[in-house]
Amino acid sequence: MPEAIPLTVHDTFSRPLRDLRISVTDRCSFRCTYCMPKEIFGRDFAFLPPRELLSFEEITRLARIFLGLGIEKIRLTGGEPLLRRDLETLIGMLAPLPGLRDLTLTTNGALLAHKAEVLKAAGLNRVTVSLDSLDDSVFQSMNDVAFPVGRVLEGIDAARAAGLTPLKINMVVQRGINDGDIAAMAQRFHGTGNILRFIEYMDVGATNGWQLGDVVSAAEIIECIHRVLPLEPIQPNYSGEVASRYRYLDGGGEIGIIASVTKPFCGDCSRARLSADGRLYTCLFAADGFDLRALLRGGSTDEEITTAVRRLWSVRSDRYSEQRSEESRLRPKVEMSHIGG
């Protein structure tokens, strides 16, 4: 008998393919200055037309193929995924797929209060909400569309009530912008059961004007929180977890720190990203992706697509954060709004 092909594919650094992040739209209702600055993504910006987006059936077909390669977790992203009409239909198609252990979604929270129950009913397991400040003036300045923080908090409460837990809240920290809100964020979500995660400001894409001096390091963030709510480090939940975990000494829960700049975690990266128009990216900082949509719409079989993905991942050597340099930072990179976080 022929030798069996192993289920899980590994790259050149023996990193398995475990997580798939699927962008369902490149559009967003916010214009966050570190992601979709209004100067670039203005009224005249050409977003993808509907015909270029992967259909729900195409996304589901690819998800099934990736599950056959060892994927265990799928995260729906954007842009803002809740802007994709009837997203709960896609969730209902993905949730029962064999081998899928965790189906999650990252959102800015603007529509979450109205959608939480239907998302849970469709089969979504958890949500992650982006929230960069509790100070309404700071929050509105950062989202740059004057969206009030109170409505995002309503969405967080609705998601928790619907059972989309453990709920995670992501704060991107920028020096001189919202770093004064670190302790307040920790105190607000301490003891709530929600997991707050602080993210070092990253040089994703080429439009946000990133400078190293704008980064508030993980060490600084921990020190700031520890002064008001003492912490201790704890072990990761699994190999490849992006956030370093800390728990409050008083039993008030845990936080996470995502330190892509000062403490890169490329060595354990098991994530692939699928853009809304069907391009597969093997790194958040990649310049270009592999066109899976062309295979889908060109009549390729599942086996042919599987072979293409396996070959692409097996030669993967991405280590951008570990190798970050002035030269690499200046090279073209895909925008985060196109492939999600």
> What is the residue-averaged pLDDT?
91
**Main sheet, how many strands, which sense, barrel?**
12 strands, mixed
Just give the CATH class.
Alpha Beta
Tell me the name of the CATH homologous superfamily: Aldolase class I
Beta strands, count: 12
Strand content: 15-25%
Task: Give the distance, in angstroms, between the N- and C-terminal Cα atoms.
Answer: 43 Å
State the helicity in percent bands: 25-40%
Characterize the structure shown:
The chain is α/β, with parallel strands linked by helices. It is built from twelve helices and twelve strands. The N and C termini lie far apart (43 Å).
What layout of secondary structure does this protein have?
Layout lengths: L18 E5 L32 H12 L5 E5 L9 H8 L7 E6 L4 H11 L3 E5 L5 H8 L5 H14 L5 E6 L8 H8 L5 E6 L17 H11 L2 E4 L9 E5 L5 E5 L12 E4 L4 E3 L8 E2 H6 L4 H13 L5 H4 L2 H5 L5 H4 L2
Parallel strand pairs: 1-2, 1-10, 2-3, 3-4, 4-5, 5-6, 6-9
Antiparallel strand pairs: 7-8, 8-9, 10-11, 11-12
Helix pairs in contact: 1-2, 1-9, 3-5, 6-7
Brief synopsis:
With 341 residues, this protein is of the alpha/beta class. It has helices spanning 56-67, 87-94, 112-122, 136-143, 149-162, 182-189, 218-228, 292-297, 302-314, 320-323, 326-330, 336-339; strands at residues 19-23, 73-77, 102-107, 126-130, 168-173, 195-200, 231-234, 244-248, 254-258, 271-274, 279-281, 290-291.
